[in-house]
Structures are given as structure tokens and as C-alpha cells.
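Researcher: I'm preparing a figure for a lab meeting and need a structural model of a single chain. I don't have an experimental structure, so a prediction will have to do for now. The sequence is pasted below. Please return the structure as C-alpha cells so I can convert it later.
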Amino acid sequence: MADAEAPSEYTATTRRYWPRRRRWQVLLVLLIVLVVTSIVAWRSREKIADNLIASQLEQLGIEATYDIESIGPTRQVLTNVVIGDPARPDLSVERIELVPTVRWWGAGIGSVTVVRPRLRASYRDGKFSLGALDPLLEQESEPKP
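Model: Understood. Here is the structure written out cell by cell.
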């Protein structure tokens, strides 16, 4: 009988750091957080796109107005794009459709469709000017290796 009461050498003497049940609970909570943040990001995608476009235009020093028709994973559409003075715009576009591409090395632009663009430019005293778009012409491009 003394042998039956003695602990076996195969009896576990330590507890697991994380019980199996606890691991699944943590994974479930992480999954729920991921789903909720994805839904919030998807619902606010137009605001995110608007902030991104506005900050890029501000960084370039270009005044523009536009309406966001739709933002999706396969197509983004801007309408009523006006660059420059709204009374006499330097560039106006009725509709711009952009199709993004995602590859292993990153995201890019697959195609851009521009509907009814109208560009006003001038050439005076030997100088070409696009009005509000001149900051884009003045940027120096880095030489490619």
C-alpha cells in the first residue's frame, strides 16, 4: 500500500504557464478586436481618403476642391475636381476613376481614367505656366540611377 500512495515519477509537478482554455480566450479577444477595428476603418474610409488627399495637396501647395463619390478596394472615384480659383479653374475634371493594384512588393496604381479634363495654361514672354499647378513643375526630380 505504501507504493500506491507515493507520487509517480510521471506525475506532472508543474502547471502550464497558459492553460489551453486561456490561450483560446486570448485569441478570440484578439480576433474580435481585429474585426471591430476593420469595420470602423471600412466605415470611415472616405474620411481617411479625404484627409490623405487634402494633406498631400497641402504639402504640394495646391488649392483644390473635389467630391468623393466612392472609395473601395477595387476602385476609387473622385468627381467635380477643381484646381485653382473656382471661378476660373486652372484644371477641372468631371470624374477621375483610379484602379489600385496590390503586389508582393507593395501597392500601386493600375489605371487612371479621367473624364472631361479641362486644363488652362499660358505662355507669356517665353514662360510656360499652368497657374495653380506650377508648384508641380518647379519641383526638382531626383536623378534615377
